[in-house]
Amino acid sequence: MTGDTGPVSPGPGALLAVLADARAMLARPGNDFSWSSFADAQTALAELDAFAAAVRSGVATPAGLPVLFAPTGPIQEVALSSGWGDEFLELAGRFDAA
Fold first, then answer.
1. Does residue 13 belong to any structural domain of this protein?
2. CA distance 8 to 68
């Protein structure tokens, strides 16, 4: 018997990579934040930076982080109104796997 315990999380590195990619997407010039809960790019980037800092300090999934990647969450709202909705779907899939 192998003692299978189910899926293994890839660890904080995968989550930090997703956050870095989300940050890069949200920092693109010309993004439209009007339909998201983010006031602007600076606010979005500060929020992602805070979540990344929490993950680096050992918090596996900081409270509130999953909402950012949820359907109709603030990142998807920016993505859809800014023309990178398909990229967001790939990113959200990576978030779910992380």
1. no
2. 23
Q: How many CB atoms lie within 10 A of CB 37?
A: 14
> pTM of the entire structure?
0.87
Structure tokens at 5: 């315990």
| Chain length of the chain | 98
- What's the total number of domains in the chain? 1
- Copy the structure tokens of residue 46: 């500060």
Considering the domain boundaries, does residue 3 fall inside one?
no
Q: Do 94 and 18 touch, CB atoms closer than 8 A?
A: yes
| Cβ 78 vs Cβ 31: under 8 Å | yes
Reported as a single tens digit per residue, the pLDDT across 22-68 is 999 999 999 999 999 999 999 999 999 999 999 999 998 899 999 99
- Residue 6 within any structural domain of the chain: no
